[in-house]
Amino acid sequence: MALSVDFFFRLLGAVGLGIAGGYLGNSIANFFGDLPEVYVIIFSLLGVLTGLVLTPYFTVVPMRHMRQRLVSMPAERLVAIIAGLFLGLVGAALFSLPLSLLPPPFRHILPLVSAVVFCYLSVVILTMRQQDFRSLMQNLRPVSQGVGVLEAPESFILLDTSVIIDGRIHDISQTGFLRDVLLVPNFVLRELQYIADSPDMIRRNRGRRGLEVLRMLQEEQRIITRITDMDVSEVREVDSKLVSLARHLRCPIMTTDYNLNRVAEIQGVTVLNINDLANAVKAAFLPGEELRVRIIQEGREPGQGVGYLEDGTMVVVEDAQRLMDKTLNVTVTKVLQTSAGRMIFAKP
After folding, report:
1. What CATH number does residue 172 fall under?
2. What's the CA gap between 335 and 342, in Å, rounded?
3. Which residues, other chains included, contact 218 with Cβ-Cβ below 8 Å and sequence gap of 6+?
4. Where does the pLDDT of residue 35 fall: very low under 50, low under 70, confident under 90, or very high at 90 and above?
5. For the chain, which terminal residue's Cβ has fewer other Cβ atoms within 10 angstroms, N or C?
6. Full-model pTM
7. Residue 149 covered by a domain
8. Are residues 56 and 78 in the same domain?
9. Burial of 96 by CB count in 10 Å (0-12 exposed, 13-18 middle, 19+ buried)?
10. Number of C-alpha atoms within 13 angstroms, CB side, residue 185?
């Protein structure tokens, strides 16, 4: 089917450009006073060749690309675009009457310009606030009157800048374990933008990664991610604003920042630390168990060798410095668990 459509548009383009080339050749021949047949034949052949080669790139290829984008586009974004186009056309229709009273050529040009501007602004605004638009549509649904059906109150999780830049929150959201609404205050978004505009390349890349992760969270259909204008004007620091807002909303903060973790716990705010979650799901090892590890570097103490498990857990092996770049069986002697991670001490 794709080949037949491609061939049809090639043939259509060849015929159209061939005729156009013939007219162009005839006009050139009349201008120079030469034989028109030669110019007509040459430019017609050039038009046919150009149509056969280039027509799909202006017809079939853009349509395929648009179809792929529409298939992969989230449903709420597609609805927001359609609603934006509708609202833009309605606004342009309301403005077309006073614009038509202007003298020419403004009354012929400005209605079209206003339609384009209104549609563009409506689509941009609704796609940027598509999560709020979806929540509004959900709130407009009639409440079920069935017996035993209860509407659960909406609960939130505040996201810190560090957890957005970290990126693992997107992987966790895809598992379906998160059921609460992820709330990103505007002051966190401004901090991400500030980091993304930093002259330092490393900070700039971290900020851009955070903005990309936030975009993917907004497109994730398993959870709801919202940008909120709620702020705490009494404090200036982002961490203090987050803690105060979490106390006001009575919701937890998700972070990977150790200092924010401690400050929030002191003030009685629940903290969801992704590092603690990652450590909790790692494989548990007890003293006396055996495991295989490859020694890749020297340890801090003399004679120590260091290797890593598949989940990133560091294994410090005594008397293994001489066994560099070798895989060996070791026996666990001690497991050290901290908020920064888990360390396993072993011996060959």
Report:
1. 3.40.50.1010
2. 7
3. 130, 131, 225
4. low
5. N
6. 0.46
7. no
8. no
9. middle
10. 23
